[in-house]
Amino acid sequence: MRHLPFDVVIVGGGPAAAAEAIRSSRRVRRVAVVSDGYGGCMRMLANQRMQSYIPELDIADGTRRLAAYVQGLERTSPTGREFATYVFHLIRDVPIAHVTGNVIGIERCGRDFAVELQGPSGFAVLKAAEVILATGLTPRDPGAWAPPGKTVTCFQAYHEIGLEQTARYAGRDVAIIGSGNSAFQLAASVARMARSVVVLAISYVGLYPQETNDRFGLRAPTQQTLEMIAKTAARDCLGPLNARSAECIAPIWLHVYEQLTWHPRERCLTAFVRLGDNTARVPAISCALARSAGRLRKCEGADDRYCIKLAGENLTVISAIGVKARVPETAWNKLVEPDSRFVRHEHGRTEIDGLYVAGGCAGYPSVNMMQSPARTSECPMPQLEANAGGDAAFRTMGLPGAH
Ligand SMILES: Cc1cc2nc3c(=O)[nH]c(=O)nc-3n(C[C@H](O)[C@H](O)[C@H](O)COP(=O)(O)OP(=O)(O)OC[C@H]3O[C@@H](n4cnc5c(N)ncnc54)[C@H](O)[C@@H]3O)c2cc1C
């Protein structure tokens, strides 16, 4: 076990880590960044476009501009791959130690921290006075409704669709559980290959900014999906996604559900739907069409309660029910806030002295809303011209994955 002393170790390799690497390298001398995948989680989108516009995604004080990575003059948003490449290059440019590895634990080591990692050539420990967690997001665990062996998370679905691995969706009935942008955007993607697509939402959050002030409201690419849902059964009424030229576009349905149940013996997923929860225009149209098509059937003895049964043989379920912080094992069991499932913090400071948090795992919903942690004592060290000490130290010590 070897210990190298760093002033700051940043755990993560996405946009938050890039911003913190730039900032830390100007403040202190010995900085390391550790990641199991530089570029961040947006790489999973591959050639699918992000929602944010290019200027919203530029990292402040970076050496590069995102616009240089975006192909096509008329494009306003990058693809996931373009953004990840930009972030990768930004981090690589910062003259600090770059370590490839998965951080498996963080604990106190005297007044410092011991950051334990598993790299390509084994286990190592980095010692640091400060640690910044910039470890991003992971999907929330699906509930008991999830059919075993038939359910994937939205991250898996984005990843597979990005790689054109379509076996799980092509010719199948796809149920997408979720009410956010991921659910609707995945619906549009899988509709190009699936037999049918149903979005089962716990609520209809409305379009931002027309129908809601909620910043999580549904955005422009989602609007196209909603248009397609509204026109699902009216095939002579063409929208951008169900134009006749686009082959194999499956109908997309949208229902706000009250309850979901997986019946293992019948191998069937049942969604219970109340019409009273489906009064917004698009779900109301979709429910009316589904009733006339015999897809939504009235439950016995209930005025307003209907159900839709999705048979297991041909079913794929995508769980798009939200995200939570991805954090390595630590000795502090109150680090993550149980309700929000993000790291508990005040202006980026956790309850543990010297442990900071940035980006998605701190609950910031988008790149342009991220804020850097404010230090307990903002006492900058003298700025240094070059900051390559960490890299050299890694090369001489032969630590795993240092490059
Ligand atoms: C489907 C989807 C679409 C989105 N679209 C947008 C959008 O258009 N615009 C926008 O602003 N935001 C978008 N977001 C939110 C976006 O994910 C975040 O804004 C951004 O990626 C967060 O950056 P981050 O650096 O905090 O985390 P990430 O980008 O997740 O990067 C964290 C990185 O840290 C590394 N890591 C994690 N744990 C460890 C560990 N233990 N050891 C070593 N390395 C580790 C991982 O390799 C990971 O790549 C989207 C999110 C999703 C899920």
Description:
- By secondary structure, this protein is of the alpha/beta class.
- Helices cover 21% and strands 26% of the residues.
- The protein contains eight helices and 18 strands.
- It has helices at residues 15-27, 54-57, 80-93, 154-162, 181-191, 220-230, 281-292, 389-397, and strands at 3-11, 31-35, 97-100, 102-109, 112-119, 122-133, 137-139, 151-153, 173-177, 196-201, 252-263, 268-274, 297-298, 305-311, 315-319, 323-325, 329-330, 355-357.
- Helix 4 runs parallel beside helix 5 (181-191).
- The chain starts with a strand and ends in a 6-residue tail after the last helix.
- 42% of the residues are buried.
- Residues 379-403 have low confidence and may be disordered.
- It binds flavin-adenine dinucleotide (FAD).
- Residues 11-17, 34-37, 40-42, 50-52, 102-103, 134-137, 158, 182, 323, 326, 328, 359-360, 366-367 line the site of flavin-adenine dinucleotide.
Helix and strand layout, with pairings?
Elements (H helix, E strand, L loop, with lengths): L2 E9 L3 H13 L3 E5 L18 H4 L22 H14 L3 E4 L1 E8 L2 E8 L2 E12 L3 E3 L11 E3 H9 L10 E5 L3 H11 L4 E6 L18 H11 L21 E12 L4 E7 L6 H12 L4 E2 L6 E7 L3 E5 L3 E3 L3 E2 L24 E3 L31 H9 L6
Parallel strand pairs: 1-2, 1-6, 2-3, 4-17, 6-18, 8-15, 9-10, 9-15, 10-11
Antiparallel strand pairs: 4-5, 5-6, 7-16, 11-12, 12-14, 13-14
Bound molecules: flavin-adenine dinucleotide.
The site of flavin-adenine dinucleotide has 32 residues, from helix 1, strand 2 and strand 4.
